[in-house]
Write a structure and sequence with these properties.
This protein is of the alpha/beta class and 320 residues long. It has 13 helices and ten strands. The protein has helices spanning 37-49, 68-77, 91-98, 114-121, 126-138, 157-167, 187-194, 206-213, 226-229, 257-261, 264-272, 285-291, 298-316; strands at 5-9, 54-58, 81-86, 104-108, 144-149, 171-175, 202-203, 230-233, 238-241, 249-252.
Length: 320
């Protein structure tokens, strides 16, 4: 089984200053250094030839990338599922250009309290999120609410759940992982999160919950399959190895992605995925989600069960 996900950092620029994110410290790449549409589209096409089914366009704030609407259209034309997570600052102005091109549209919402949300995001954007929800629904879109939860906003979970249920939108619980200056989550807080995992319109990957209880990734018996499952691309068109959060090496995509992906260098990283010293105890969920699709075990079963609930809640649950 080849790679499943293209994790494309189309920009490192961002118009927010989120407390849990390192992007503001690494956003010195000007927009002129980002890929042209032709080069970005070529990478997507080559990734499709390698077998990817999902293209996640991320950042920074992906809506700052000038070519995003057309790149999404090209990706959908290739038959790919697309995903974008946005802080919603630019969404109201771009909604019609993006309409119908994003399979999994995620709006970041970290509290139902305006001041708390804006404090976490570092800018005043709560009202933009609420406006974006209204606009998206009027256009027939079904955005998910991406709740990056930490110890400070954990008490908002109940109110966030009720809001999602009222709006009939999925609340994706995205636990803040231990990275940069983040504290991660204690077992006590995870138990509280878990008590919401089976509620209507709430998504929490059960496999990731099990991984947390097991202490995260173990280098002696790794569960991470990041190099095998995910192709991570920088805004300048480089392959990032082994992953964005633990970059060891970046390789310019020349002459093409397929040649690089099948190179001896990448094979070595694939062999060492989850085995580097910094992989011990890792709980970066964005990489474990696709990793659970590889190698049949309890993590796979639990992850599939969570995804089945997501599909039911989003597409099959009665709307009345």
């Amino acid at each position: 089984m080849g790679p499943l996900l293209l994790h494309f950092y189309v920009t490192y620029r961002c118009n927010a200053r989120c407390l849990f994110c390192d992007i503001p410290e690494n956003c010195d790449i000007p927009s002129s250094s980002e890929l042209t549409l032709d080069k970005a589209a070529l990478i997507v096409k080559q990734a499709k030839e390698l077998g990817i089914r999902f293209a996640d366009f991320t950042g920074g704030e992906p809506l700052l990338y000038h070519h995003l609407p057309m790149l999404l259209r090209i990706s959908r034309g290739l038959g790919l599922y697309t995903s974008v997570t946005t802080n919603c600052i630019r969404y109201p102005d771009m909604a019609e250009k993006l309409m119908g091109q994003i399979t999994y549209l995620h709006f970041s919402l970290d509290s139902m309290d305006r001041e708390e949300h804006d404090r976490i995001r570092g800018v005043k954007c709560y009202d933009k999120v609420m406006e974006s929800i209204s606009i998206a629904k009027s256009l027939g879109e079904r955005p998910d609410l991406m709740f990056t939860v930490n110890e400070s906003n954990l008490p908002s979970l109940g109110e966030m759940t009720r809001f999602a249920q009222q709006q009939k939108l999925i609340l994706v619980i995205n636990p803040e992982f231990d990275y940069v200056n983040n504290n991660g989550f204690s077992d006590e807080y995870w138990e509280y999160l878990s008590s919401y995992a089976y509620k209507p319109y709430v998504y929490l990957n059960y496999g990731f919950r099990k991984l947390h209880r097991a202490g995260g990734n173990r280098i002696t018996k790794p569960r991470c399959r990041v190099v095998r499952s995910t192709i991570v691309i920088s805004p300048g068109g480089e392959l990032i190895l082994p992953c964005y959060h633990r970059q060891v090496e970046t390789i310019p995509i020349e002459p093409n992605l397929k040649t690089i992906y099948q190179s001896e260098t990448v094979k070595q990283y694939r062999h060492r995925q989850g085995r580097f010293l910094f992989c011990e105890g890792c709980r970066i969920n964005c990489y474990f989600d696709p990793s659970f699709c590889y190698d049949w075990d309890a993590y796979t079963v639990l992850s599939m069960a969570a995804k089945a609930k997501y599909v039911f809640d989003k597409y099959m649950r009665p709307r009345r």
